[in-house]
Fold these 4 entries.
Entry 1:
Amino acid sequence: MISRIGAPRPPSIHRSPFTIDDSPVQGDGNFFLASPWGSPYKHTPIFMPDTNPILRIGLPSGSLQEATLSLFAKAGFHINNSSRSYKPSVDDPELVVRLLRAQEMSRYVEHGFLDCGLTGADWIAENQSDVETLCELTFSKTSAQPTRWVLAVPENSPIQTVKDLQGKVIATEAVGMTRKFLEKHGVTAEVEFSWGATEVKVPDLVDAIVDVTETGSSLRANKLRILETLMTSSPRFIANKQALLDPWKRAKIDRIVLLLKGAHAARSKVGLKMNIPENKLKALIEALPALRNPTVAHLATPEWVAVETIIDEKIVREIIPQLKTLGAEGIIEYPLNKVVY
């Protein structure tokens, strides 16, 4: 077990969810992990590890949760969150997983309450977190595309440029990002924090919004038009800089990153294998450049070879009929969990 020593817990502050196991804090219970929104957050926790090493990893809850858990499953880490708890179980005894809002993740990683985690580049920038970014994993709630933070106004608004926002009111969850954007354009406006459902606040409550979108469909449904894109963002795997100095944690994190990158690379790929007469192999490869650098092996049947390769899933429906025309037989398409380059 790992104990944490912090400041005395005032009556108004709840016990933190960041105990490492499910047992209560030992002693009189008068300890807490301070909120990131108040000054107590500056206190540095003191960890007293026992003999079994543990890596504390944070994963995003909310819109990215399902896609993230699916990616980890392909990477070989099966995380069970059937109870809808922020403390899901995982089939790796060396991991402790916590589900947190992506907005908060980089803060907890920076200050050492987590060793590593997955969050958006937007929230790392918004929080100005001093963390190590180890890899980019481009996916979102509904697609494999990055998300965009955009400035939007009602379709019939007279606001046509950023300059027209002078003296106006803007609602957003990314207050810091929005203020920097306005400052860059020499515009002074009131930027207020939005707790959610930001797109419904215009035009009755605010003049414009800065919100995140994947496809823009929600903005269009609320009759909004995009003026500018402030930032393009995608998930990043980040680590606490002190944790990376620990040889065991560094090695464990590197293994996780390798497997995640392999699982991510396999998302749009499939494996393809077939048999073909050896005298037709050259013509097949020349005709189908997508089959670059395939693996070729001789079969027990004389003058036949087996061909195996990895290709983009989106072109399989075009490739297979051509393979058949060129003399391939026994064509098999199969899914992939990881592609490690």
Entry 2:
Amino acid sequence: MTRMWGDLCELWLEHPVSRTTHRDVVRRTVLASVLSLCLLPSDEGLAQQPGSNAGSAADQIANFFSQVGDQIYEDCIFELSDEQVEVQYALIEAYVRQGASSSVARRLAVAQIHPPELSQECKQMQSLPKAPAPTVAAIPPVVKKPTKTAAPKPPPKAIEPAILLKDKKTLPQWDCAPNVDYVTIKRKGFERKLTGGEICKPFEDVVAEVPDNLRSFRLGYTIRTGRLFVVSDDPKVSGKTISWAISGREVCRNNPDPDCLAARSVGPLPPGEYSFAGDDRRITWGPKTKRHVAAIYLRKLWNRDQFSPAQTAAILARGNIAIHMRLKGEMSEACLGLEPKGWAYVASLIKEARATGVNVYIDEPYPQIAEAPPVVMASSFSLTSLFK
């Protein structure tokens, strides 16, 4: 089974790879693939005449990379995220508990949890042939005297969070609608309802573009509603909605309860002023999440009067936070999880340095113009599908 990584959102920035570094890695990988053909032993090299499969593979790879250039891997997500893998396994177990056969449960889970649709460039990359690796003579193993191995130590006991959330309930506005079928999985100690592999009431993937003549502004985000909007000195555009994003997971999804805000890897991002990284690292590749993210850093915590000293200390110790794309079945561990179109547009605003930072509010600062959250209420999933 795939190794499950720890706190998804708050770990994925521990070793971020900048766009420049990531491109260099890709280039080195391709170069290594091509050089592998040159490093084959001489007898094999003579056997690989022009027009052979190996030469053809190298030509196709080189030609493709010369066409796409720096856009390589920019938006390609070929694999499930670690969270999606966990959700997929948990779905299988949940479907079996509901009475489905193991084969039906696996088929449904695989069909429901999958990577996002690939662009044509990503599909072209995926279909490229693989260049053969160089042949290396086998090295005889070193024979060592048998040694007594100590018995494996038992895994450390899970540390209970300082702030208990066991009595918290999912806010009604984010819970499944009464007429929706769902199953319940458990992930990292919390229950999550899924309908057809998706969370209840995800946001619709809507985007409203910022006027082109507004070249510099801050992003605003309301924890309670998930609204992402413009913060500007221009009253004509300040407060205008850009998109919608989830923050927090399970009982703490978009829940500004102080206990949630202080809960690492569970609660939404805290209120306050955030900045982006330097210009060359605004959008970075998260190798553990297999997608791009925009790191943001808390510079000033707001609403301190609403938190106890212990809660304030826990909030300030929460660590890395980012803006990223949310994949099906996922929630968000402290970050802002946008739907695909919303992420693509917001990422462009960040890359172009039009968006200069983020202001996070507990309650809506522009109630007179803020829309109601556009959530997906319905679901085509039916529990009867478990027995077909």
Entry 3:
Amino acid sequence: MVGGGGIPVGVEMKEPRRTEAKSPGAKSPGKAGAGKGRAKKLPSPKSGSGPKGGNGGARGAGNQGDFQDPHHIASRATRLEAAIGREVRGFRHQLGMTVTQLAQSANMSAGMLSKIENGQTSPSLATLTELSRALQVPVTAFFRKFEEERSATFVKAGKGLPIERRGTRAGHQYQLLGHSFSRLLAVEPYLITLSKDSDVFPIFQHEGVEFLFMLEGEVGYRHGDKTYLLQPGDSLYFDADVPHGPEDLRKLPARYLSVICYTRSQE
């Protein structure tokens, strides 16, 4: 069949399609329409996403859970779950039991026990009873650490508690600035003052570790076979079971902070 002007109708219809196929990136009207249809069905962006964020923003939000927020304050319930979990794990280790062994003895799955020990779930009273039976401890033992008093020590300037120590007879003045409440770890912060009446005393020796921070004056402080010149702002951290102490009083008066830390003996 021939249309107006002597041009076949079939050729007239096919020619535009051949031209469109040669154009880079061109799509057929049908496909373009389908593409537009899909674009209309896309969900609206959720909170936190945007042109710059995209899928990367979503992944970044997910990864935030891998890091601890230093400003996060756990709720009382969360702290209780964590305290119970630590106690359960501690009692299990004392008995030399594996997670599987304790789970079987307490009639629960190993997965549930793992969640309890990691503070990820709040165990029921029935569950705690089963655990106390398997661990041979009273139920109240799981709450002891949580119920321990958490306190602080505040000392006004110049109001530290005078303490006598080995260096007192050498003219060293000690002011205790606080003490720890833990039954396992002892921390003793002192403000030490050396005056013209003080004498050298490089033979201190005790358990734990010690940290010094120089506030005023200059002191040559010996630790083992080395002597360190301490000036204001300098610090020294060392194992305290090695003989140590001020060996050269260069500029007096001298004042420095001394923090001694050691584990308490288990009885």
Entry 4:
Amino acid sequence: MSLPENFCSAPFIQLQTSKDNRCGVCPYTPNRWQVQGTIADKWKSKELESLRKSFIENKQDPQCRRCWKEEEAGKKSLRLRLSEHKGSKNTKKIFEKYIETKKYLEYPRVLTLIPGNECNLACPSCTGGFSSKWNSLIANGKYEIQSMEPNWNLSDADYQDIVDNSEKLQKIELFGGEPFLNKRNRNLLIDKLIEKGTSKNITIYFNTNGTLFDEKYMNLIVDNFKFVEIRLSMDGLYEQFEYLRYGANFEKVCENAEKFKALPNTDFEIICTISIFNLFSIADMDKFFKERNWSVYYNIASFPNHLLLHNLPESTKDHVVVGPAFHDIKKYTTMKQCNQSDWEKFVQYTKELDNNRGLSFKNTFPTLYNLVKKHGYESTIKTKYCI
């Protein structure tokens, strides 16, 4: 068979799993379905088989709209990046044979894990479902947009299912919460994989906020896993970083970034997510990262709606000036019209954050504020702020 133009390898190699039997294909489609049973049961589910069928038939499945939207904007989506495996010039032929023989049905090769909401930060882009810190702040503050959610972790049985089948895995991706804060990740997964001896054949991936660096723990991981990938979230510089990664210290995270980068047997990269907040700070961030020789991937915010780029008021979009390297981000701002209710929620949200945290959106993001101040901040008459 020949792989069609819209083919994606993810549902043939990768499974995302979390609490309450929630699962999806990849980090872009988290917790899309609820399928009872083990990882093996989820892997052979009718939901996943239906998605595989749509890709084989060259359909653009709407469940994967994030990738389609990125590609429409001229961005290299996760789907396209997955097709460019490092060190392989025959990826297409390998997958054609892999699918024809249905070898993929044996077990996922990549497991993406959202193991709990234990986190020490309360980022504006997050919720209590992924941050226990958010829940503690909501309990003691006055937030209308955010609401408390139960704190949670994967069960012992969930972790054991991974360990028991770890010889079939090539890669495990740990998201959060904050994966280095969650002790169950170490006690029930990392240590057990090392003890079993399967870690030496597994690449381990951490999506971290960069606030924690345990040298002894990292050396244990580097020495016992096949390879280590560190992806550190950094969406701003100095006071903007501390506004967007509330609870973190910028200088400390930069110090930890250098420590992660210096680890042997490790690939380090910054993940910088662009939203309304930092759209006008791209040039400064890019310069900062290049000066430190930090590899960076610019992600585009896909949630919550009130932070999405297209919800910037229409009259301010002409002021978005980015270089050719960020043409996709510029296009994202104009792919849809600003939604009035979403923009009003952004205004309300920034006011809530400032009031509860003693911060100043106006002083922290002066370029953005000066462009939008007549769109709900300094105006006294209710109007259509999105125009």
